[in-house]
Amino acid sequence: MTSRLLALWRRLPTPIRRSAHVAAGVPRASLDALDQALAAHQGRRAERAALARARKGAGPRGLSPALPVTIIGFHGAVHGLGEGARMLARGFADMGLPVRALDLSASVGFAAEIPPAFPPPDPGERGVTISHINPPELLRWVRDTEGRLLQGRRHVGYWAWELEEVPSDWLPAFDFVDEVWTPSAFAADAIRRVAPKRVRVAPAPYPLYLNPRPQADRTRFGLPHDQVVVLMAFDLRSTAQRKNPRAALRAFQQATARATRPAMLVCKIVGADLYPETFQALAADVAGDPSIRLLTDNLSAQDMAALTASSDIVLSLHRSEGYGLLLAEAIWLGKPTLATGWSSNVEFMDPASSRLVDYRLVPVEGDGVIYRAGRWADADVTDAAEKLARLISDDAWRDALAAATARNGHVSFNRDAWIAMTRALAALA
Fold it and tell me: What is the rounded CA–CA span in Å between residue 229 and residue 70?
């Protein structure tokens, strides 16, 4: 054992040897600790080698834009990231450009439930590649493919982030992109702070104008026709801490206690099967309250749009958003929105059609899997309840807000503005 211990010790890099502490009298524990340190070192070395191979396979950056446009992402997944990739693909097609799509759903364990709308790229095609995946998934993909699918192509990373500072483990991904687009100025500011000077970072919101506008159909969803229906929706894979549904539940309960007419809250939840304890805690919070309905059915983008169209108000007391897709979709569908007044959603929630909830900025805590540092917003539940109570009670005011959504001038809702923005960014004819 002593000889093996010495052999392992000599194989460790000097910094690790300096920091290691071998306790006398416990050789097994010491050996295990050295085994772990060596495995970690070897893992980091293998990671660096894999990324080096990927950088070589991807070739040099700085190529000029060309056609076709290939969108890489979770095209088949019933997921916000999947819908974002599909919208970008539809947007480029609406510009009259040839579009390809590469679906990575299976590579991260997402079920591919939506058939592809565009063909995959041919091996010999070049053009522009837009990877609608964040750096952790991008780095995994380029390692797996050794960067081959980026060779000879201009590469735009389309990244979304919800806080003011991006994680340090994103930094190696800049080696594989020519530029970065984001769905909001808020996200662009965060990424720009750490981007190399050669990498342009620009906001490029989604083309919401392409989304259909279905008619309300409360019967289909079993919703009451004589009550105000409030909708909140979130994906537990995006973390309950960030989406903050319990605050919204409390705000609704306080609002209905003071509102002058009845209301129902529909809480659409994705990922309940993946996070059963979180879901059960939410269910316990509202047990016995007939005015709150938890909906866990799998809904397509079209079904979700129909559910939103069947609602009167869309509510979100999130702690931070990188875009706020549901809120933007609600505005496009003519629905008043009430949400935390911080992060990306304030870029399209105009005062004429939306109401922002007061908040205070607090340190990020309790969500170490994805969000490990920085700050985000803690919505004022009392303020939210007061504003929601008025929205529920005042039909004329709510109707005025709904009518004002048609005048929202954000680029997401304007075809000409979106196409002009995208042509300028992509430099494509």
Answer: 40
DSSP-assigned states of every residue in 95-160:
TT--EEEEE-GGGGT----S--SSPPPPTT--SEEEE-S-HHHHHHHHHHHTTGGGTTSEEEEE--
| The pLDDT value given to residue 288 | 86
What is the rounded CA–CA span in Å between residue 429 and residue 154? 15
Domain boundaries, given as residue ranges, for the chain: 2-56, 69-205+416-426, 218-409
For 63, other C-beta atoms within 10 Å of its C-beta total: 17
pLDDT in tens, 103-137: 998 877 777 788 889 999 987 888 999 999 999 99
Rounded-to-integer distance, Cα 294 and Cα 233, Å: 10
Angstrom distance (rounded) from CA 38 to CA 42: 6
197: number of Cβ within 10 Å? 5
* CA 201 distance to own-chain centroid: 17
* 69-205+416-426 CATH: 3.40.50.11930
Round the CA-based radius of gyration of the chain to a whole number and report it.
Answer: 24
Is 218-409 the same fold as 69-205+416-426? yes
Structure tokens given for 41: 């070192």
Asked whether residue 322 carries a pLDDT value surpassing 80, the answer given is yes
Per-residue confidence (pLDDT) for residue 107, from 0 to 100 = 79
Residue carrying structure tokens 């052999």: 7
Residue 40 has pLDDT above 60, yes or no: no
391 closest CA partner among 233, 218, 255:
255
> Using one digit for the tens of pLDDT, what is the confidence trace for 367-394?
667 888 899 999 999 999 999 999 999 9
99 within 8 A of 125, measured Cβ to Cβ: no
Report the relative pairing of strands 200-203 and 179-182 from DSSP bridges.
Answer: parallel
The structural architecture, per CATH, of the domain 218-409 is: 3-Layer(aba) Sandwich (3.40)
Residue 332's closest CA among 230, 421, 417, 407? 407
pLDDT, average across residues 399-408: 97
Q: By C-alpha distance, which of 135, 138, 70, 66 is closest to 99?
A: 70
Q: Residue 360: count other Cβ atoms within 10 Å of its Cβ.
A: 10
Does 24 score more than 90 pLDDT?
no
How many Å separate Cα 15 from the centre of its chain? 38
405 contacts: CB under 8 Å, gap ≥ 6: 331, 332, 333, 334, 335, 336, 353
DSSP-derived secondary structure letter, 63: P
**Predicted pLDDT of residue 6:** 61
